[in-house]
Design brief:
mainly alpha; Histone, subunit A; two-stranded antiparallel ribbon; 3 helices; elongated
Length: about 100
């Protein structure tokens, strides 16, 4: 797909980008090359290819799933301005 100067100006306007007039031709070439690459990749038959979550075949190092924080609810409730039955009371902000 080949983009011309008017296409680049429309794209720049939609993206709210200011492009210097002398750069428009370079952007047209670069964006055309990108769109051509996407078109070539789209034309490749990928039936039977398993989608990958990540391009590298690596496994994540996982940490043990264990509780490391202690229950400090009573402490936090004691320093809160207003509480009732274990809940924090806040001022009404919407009528």
């Amino acid at each position: 797909m080949s983009l011309d100067a008017s296409d680049i100006e429309k794209i720049a306007h939609l993206a709210r980008l200011a492009i210097a007039p002398e750069s428009i031709e370079r952007y047209a070439v670069d964006l055309s090359n990108i769109l051509d690459l996407v078109a070539r990749m789209d034309a490749i038959d990928t039936t039977g290819v398993t989608p990958m979550a990540h391009p590298l075949h690596m496994s994540q190092r996982l940490r043990a799933d264990r509780v490391v924080d202690s229950d400090q609810r009573e402490l936090f409730q004691s320093i809160a301005p207003l509480t009732e039955d274990g809940l924090y009371l806040v001022p009404k902000v919407i009528d």
